[in-house]
């Protein structure tokens, strides 16, 4: 598996991964409101890395480098549990300065467990009812 910086040529596949992964995993959200264009809106001014193997993109992470913040980390549903997320997370950590932060939706139990198993700590739960999330930190 190779981790590399994404180019605009990768965006069509990254849009699909973002949409499919959210539709599969975000049980609390209305999947009918999710679109391919969400990727472009949700990654403005971000540094995007991706994982690929044999020319196929397996997942990506988008980072807001000025704040040492991981904004998105998504793996194609067909590659869940195969170490893609862990490699993207480690490459993200290697690119930024500690402490690094991210937000994880409170209802996203699998993601919360994934981050905690990889050394992240919950800092504070924020947001209004129905939109709660944890601010998490890696030192």
TrEMBL record:
Signal peptide: none annotated. The keyword Transferase applies. PROSITE patterns: GNAT. GO terms for molecular function: acyltransferase activity, transferring groups other than amino-acyl groups. Residues 1-139 form the N-acetyltransferase domain. InterPro entries: Acyl_CoA_acyltransferase, Bact_Acetyltransf, GNAT_dom. It comes from the Bacteria. SUPFAM superfamilies: Acyl-CoA N-acyltransferases (Nat). Keywords: Acyltransferase, Transferase. This is GNAT family N-acetyltransferase. It comes from Gottfriedia endophytica.
């Amino acid at each position: 598996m190779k981790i590399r910086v994404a180019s605009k040529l990768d965006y069509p596949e990254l849009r699909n991964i973002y949409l499919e992964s959210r539709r599969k995993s975000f049980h609390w959200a209305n999947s009918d409101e999710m679109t391919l264009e969400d990727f472009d809106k949700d990654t403005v001014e971000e540094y995007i890395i991706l994982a690929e193997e044999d020319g196929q993109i397996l997942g990506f992470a988008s980072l807001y480098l000025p704040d040492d913040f991981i904004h998105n980390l998504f793996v194609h549903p067909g590659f869940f549990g195969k170490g893609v997320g862990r490699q993207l997370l480690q490459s993200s950590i290697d690119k930024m300065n500690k402490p690094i932060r991210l937000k994880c939706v409170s209802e996203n139990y699998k993601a919360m467990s994934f981050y905690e198993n990889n050394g992240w700590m919950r800092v504070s739960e924020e947001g209004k009812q129905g939109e709660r999330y944890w601010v998490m930190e890696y030192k």
